[in-house]
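Write out the bound-state structure for molybdenum atom.
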Amino acid sequence: MSENPSLNVVRAHPLCAETPPAVLTLPYTPAASVYVRSNFPTPALDASHRVTVRGAVQNAREFVVAEFADWPQHELLVTMECAGNWRLGMEPVPEGEPWSWGAVSTTRWRGVRLADVLARVGVQPDVVEVVAVGADSGPRDDATEPGAVTFARALPIEVAMHPDTLLATHMDGQPLTPDHGAPLRLVVPGWYGMASVKWVAALELVTAPFTGYFQRQRYVYRTSNGVEPVTRARVKSFVVSPAPNARCDAEVMLRGWAWSGYAPIAEVSVQVGDGPWLTAALAPSASDYAWTEFTLSLSLPRGTVTLRTRARDSVGNVQPEQAEWNDLGYGNNAIRSFTLHVAD
Ligand SMILES: Nc1nc2c(c(=O)[nH]1)N[C@H]1C(S)=C(S)[C@@H](COP(=O)(O)O)O[C@H]1N2
Ligand SMILES: [Mo]
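---
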C-alpha cells in the first residue's frame, strides 16, 4: 500500500491513509483516493453477508445484503471527514493517528435508507438510539482493560430515521471496496466519519444510551470540563490552490473548500498578512452535504506571504483562532494559516 500514489498512508495495518493534497484540489475524490480510517483488520465479507436487526423492535430479523439491490435506491454526494483530521495541528499533539489535512473526501454514496430497514422491523416507541455494530474487532488501544472490542457506534433515533441516513452498498457508482466497508456501511451525512460504521453486522435498537468503548472512551471530546460525544463535523475551510508553500505570481486566484455538518456555508473570508478580512465568492454547492467551493482573486505583495481562511455557516458557527485542545485530538477546525512565495 505504501507505494500507492492514490493515498498517503499514515499506517499500513490496519489501513489509515489520507487523500493526497493534489487530489484535494478536485471537487469529487476519485474512489481510489478516498481516505481510509480503519481501527482493526478489514473483515472479508461478501453480498451473502447478513445483517441482524434486533433489540427494541416488533420483529427482529436478518437481511441478506444482496436483497437491498431490489429496494428503492438513494444516492448522495457527501463530504466525509475523520474527527481526527489535522490532529497534527494541535499543540501539543494528542495521542492517536497522526493525521495531517487529508482525512477528508467527497464522494457519492448509494444504498438504501436506514429508515426503510427500520420500518420493516418496526421501531418500538421508547427507542432512543440505533447502535450500528461492525464486523471488525480487536484489542482496545488504551490498555486499561484487556480483551477485544468491536467497533460500534450509536446514532440518536431521529438521525437514524432521517431520509438522508443511508446503508450504503456503493461508492462512486461501484460496489464498496473492502477498505470502505463492503458490502454494507452506514453513511451519516454531516457527521464526522466515526458515525458511518463500516461492515455493518448488526443494528441494535436500544431504549437507553449506548455506553460502548467507541461511544464513551473514543470519539469523545475529553477535556478538563468533562466528556462530550463527537457528533457533527465542525465548520472548516482550507485553500487547495495555489498549494500551501507554493511559488506563485502576485495576481492569484485563491480556491478552496469549506464545509460544516451543521448548516450550509454562509461566508468564507481570507486574510493576507494582518490585513483586513476579505470576503470570498461562494460557488453553488453540489449537494447539501458536500463542501462548498470558494474563490478570491488577490494581488499579493512580493516575498513570503502568510494567508488565513475562516468559514462561517448559516447558523453562526465560525472557525476559531485556536483549536479547542482535547485529550484525543478531535475536531481541530482552527483557522489554518499557510504561506505562499510570491515571485518578483
Ligand atoms: N466498523 C468500522 N467502521 C468504521 C471505522 C472502523 O474502524 N470500523 N472507522 C470509522 C472512522 S473513525 C471513519 S473516519 C470512517 C472512515 O471511513 P472510510 O475509511 O471509508 O473513509 O469510518 C468509520 N467507520
Ligand atoms: Mo475517523
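---
The chain has a mean pLDDT of 96.
The first helix runs from residue 114 to 121.
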